[in-house]
Amino acid sequence: MSQQEENLCEDYALRAAQYYENEDFVRAEQQARRGLALDSDHGILNLILGRTLLKKRNLSSVAASRGPLEKAHQAIDNHRTTYSLGEFHLRYGEFLRGEAGILRSTSDGLPPEENFEQADLYRRAKRLEDKASEHLGSALGFMNQALADQPDWIYALQHKASILAHQKKHKKALATIDHLCVILAKSRKHKNERLVLQELSVAEENRLRRDLFTDIEWELAGRGLASTILMNLKSWELADAHLTKMLSLAPNMVTEYYNRGLCRHYMGRVQEAAADMKTFVGRTNLAMSTAEVDRALTIMAKVRL
User: Fold this and answer.
1) For residue 44, what are the domain limits?
2) What pLDDT digit, counting tens, does each position of 237-247 carry?
3) Is residue 15 part of a domain?
4) Where does residue 31 rank: exposed (0-12), middle (13-18), buried (19+ CB within 10 A)?
5) Which alpha helices (H) appear in 167-302, and where do they start and end?
6) Given a cut of 90, is residue 73 above it in pLDDT?
7) What is the dihedral of CA 244, 245, 251, 257, to 10 degrees?
8) Which residues contact 35 (CB under 8 A, 6 or more apart)?
9) Which helix (H) or strand (E) covers residue 53, if one does?
10) Phi, psi at residue 181, to the nearest 5°?
11) Is the Cα torsion angle 228, 230, 232, 236 positive or negative in sign?
12) Does 6 reside within a domain?
C-alpha cells in the first residue's frame, strides 16, 4: 500500500469507529467495507465489520460475521476481539437451536403414517443441536478468556450467564449473574454519588444518566434470566427475590408481576399472589381469554382484594 492508501484506510477506520459508537451501524459497515477494500487484513476494520454484522441479528449476517471477527482476532489478540468471537459462537448456536426446535415441532405435527419423514426431521434436528452445542462450548471458552483479562466486564458476564443457561449449568449461571449484579450495584452507587455530589456539565450529566440507565437494563436482563432459571427449577423463593428486585428497579414490568404472583402462589402466600395478579390484569395488554389472564383471575378469586 502507498502512504496515501494507508492514510485513507486509517480515515475509514476512524469514521467507522465513530459511526459504530453512535450506533449508526449502516454507515459503520459502509466505512469498514471501503477500508477493507484497501487492506483486507486490517484489524480494527474487520472488528467493526464483524460487530455490525452481529448487530443485524439474522442468521446469514451472524454467519457472515465469523470471517472478519477471526481476522480481527488474528490481527489484534485482545479481550475485545476474544469477546466478539465468543458472541458470534453464542448467537450462531442460538440460531441453530432455534432451527432445531422448528424441525422438532414440525415433526411432532406430522401424522403417524409419515413416520419416515418424521424420523428424518428428528435426525436433522439432532445434527443442528449437536452443532449448536459445539458453538456454545466455543462461546464459553472465548468468554472465559475475555474475563481472564477483564473479570468485571458486564457484557462478557451477561453472555457467559446466557451460555451456561443454554448448557443447563444452572448453578454456574446463577453464580455468574450474582457476580454481575454486585458489579452493577456498585456501578450504580458510584454514578448516583457523582450525580449528587459533583458539579457536572449538562453533557456529562446526560452521559452519566444514560450509563446509569444502561446499568439498570443489564441488571434487569441478568435477574430476568436468573428468575427464569429458578422458576424452571421450582425455586420459588429465590425467583421471588430476583423478581422483587427487578420490580423495585422497573415497576412497570407488567409480566414480572405475573411471574412473581406465580411464585408467591406456589409458596402459599395467597394474598400477595392475588395482589400481584391484580396489578398484572390491570396493566396487561393481553386479551382476557389468554391462559395467563385466566390463571391470574383464578388466583385472584381465591381471596377478597
Assistant:
1) 1-58
2) 999 999 999 99
3) yes
4) buried
5) 170-197, 202-232, 236-249, 254-266, 270-283, 291-300
6) yes
7) -30
8) 8, 9, 12, 13, 16, 42, 45
9) helix 43-55
10) -65, -35
11) negative
12) yes
